[in-house]
Write a structure and sequence with these properties.
Blueprint (H helix, E strand, L loop, with lengths): L6 E2 L5 E2 L3 H29 L12 H6 L1 H11 L55 H14 L3 H7 L32 H8 L1 H10 L8 H5 L11 E11 L5 E10 L5 E6 L6 E3 L2 H4 L3 H4 L5 H12 L3 E4 L2 H8 L8 E3 L4 H7 L6 H9 L10 H14 L1 H21 L10
Parallel strand pairs: 3-7, 7-8
Antiparallel strand pairs: 1-2, 3-4, 3-6, 4-5
Length: 417
């Protein structure tokens, strides 16, 4: 390694410098040069305060020592104001100069449209742009004079604020289904009604040769018919739950209709126990219905008087008679759930009233909350539909049972010895 000469000591001996001392010596020397250059620069600024500075002072002492010099430096650093550009005139024609004696008629006239300078994007420059809306109107008026027909075009033109809103997309009306849309014939009309609507279901029923569904009331009730008590009546009851979890049932509503579907009795029954389940989704009963209902004993008596000596029609009617605590002769009961032709038609051993009405009457009942009036009308309509056949079968079965009894041999009495 090369040896570095050090400082000579008073004794004449040389001392070698370490690397740390060398760095220290270099930085001190460099900082001195920087400080001297800064001082010379400050002196020049003080001598020539109007000179343009490339950068503001950085040393904080300069701000406090000479505030006036700083203000002058900042003023000198501001950009010079640009002089307005003289407008160019069309085809080199300059406006006439007015003489002293002539009146200045056109002093306040707005500049011609060619004098308004625009940039490449078509925007008016800030130095030449008019500040008032009235100026724009004057410019347009001048253009109209120069260009014939310009006023008409400008009247038709609309500003950005007056532009109409975007046109809404036309709402396409839903087209009713036709027979061409229902080209298939192997789908249940009820499924089509759920997905495509009632109109499509009616088309499919006609296509398959089925009876179209009608209004429920028009099917179940005969218009302009007798509205009193007839020989045959139909009954239906609604119940609510009592006891733990509403397992037990009590009477809540009783409805009776005559042979033509006309309602002859319909009453709500006041509960004798605390109701724990109103079963509203099925029964349609709510607290306000039975809060001021009729006493159950009064209802039992009135219903018993109506049913006495008459044919009573119902669906699973044993449940209705049981909840009313009433009894009725078996030969005067017509239960649509137990009628064998109905079971055979729908293919069920215990068909529901909803199923019988859908398959035989082609109407929909019990859609949501039940109504005891409608259920009674439905059972009566089922009965009247097959009344002659039903009654004939009962008479024939009665004759057969009577003949069988006669043909039975009676046991001989023992002769007295």
């Amino acid at each position: 390694m090369s040896k570095i000469k050090g400082k000579e000591t008073p004794a004449g001996k040389t001392q070698q410098l370490t690397s740390k001392e060398k760095r220290k010596k270099f930085f001190i020397k460099h900082n001195r040069k920087k400080q001297t250059s800064q001082k010379t620069l400050n002196k020049k600024n003080l001598e020539n305060p109007g000179a343009k500075q490339t950068a503001p002072p950085q040393d904080p002492q300069q701000f406090s020592s000479n505030w006036k010099a700083l203000q002058e430096i900042l003023k000198s650093s501001q950009p010079e104001k640009k002089q307005p550009v003289t407008p160019k005139h069309r085809n080199g024609v300059f406006p006439k100069k007015f003489k002293g004696n002539e009146p200045k008629k056109f002093q306040n006239k707005s500049p011609a449209p060619s004098q308004v300078h625009t940039d490449r994007e078509g925007k008016v420059k800030s130095g030449d742009a008019p500040k008032e809306d009235g100026v724009k109107a004057k410019i347009h008026a001048a253009l109209d004079k120069l260009q014939p027909g310009g006023a008409r075009k400008r009247q038709n033109e609309k500003t950005d604020n007056e532009k109409p809103a975007k046109k809404k997309k036309p709402v396409t009306e839903e087209r009713k289904p036709t027979e061409y849309d229902l080209w298939f014939d192997d789908v249940d009309p009820d499924d089509i009604e759920e997905t495509m609507g009632a109109e499509a279901a009616e088309i499919m029923r006609r296509k398959q040769g089925m009876k179209t569904s009608k209004n429920v009331d028009s099917v179940l009730v005969k218009e302009n018919a007798f509205d009193g008590i007839t020989k045959a009546v139909a009954i239906d009851c609604e119940m609510v739950g009592v006891g733990p979890d509403g397992e037990d049932s009590i009477l809540a509503r009783v409805s009776i209709v005559n042979q033509f579907g006309k309602c002859i009795y319909d009453k709500y029954v006041k509960p004798t126990e605390k109701v724990t389940d109103y079963r509203t989704a099925v029964s349609g009963i709510r607290p306000e219905h039975i809060k001021n209902g009729e006493d159950v004993h009064v209802v039992q008596k009135e219903v018993a008087e109506i049913l006495q000596g008459r044919i009573v029609v119902g669906h699973a009617i044993h449940n209705d008679l049981k909840i009313l605590l009433l009894d009725h002769p078996k030969k005067h009961i017509r239960d649509t759930q137990k009628y064998k032709p109905f079971r055979k038609t729908v293919g069920s051993g215990r068909p529901s009233l909803k199923l019988l009405c859908r398959e035989i009457l082609h109407v929909k009942v019990q859609q949501g909350e039940h109504s005891s009036v409608q259920d009674a009308q439905a059972t009566m309509r089922l009965y009247t539909l097959v009344k002659k056949q039903w009654e004939a079968e009962l008479k024939a079965s009665k004759k057969n049972s009577d003949s069988n009894k006669k043909n039975e041999r009676r046991p001989r009495k023992k002769q007295n010895q």
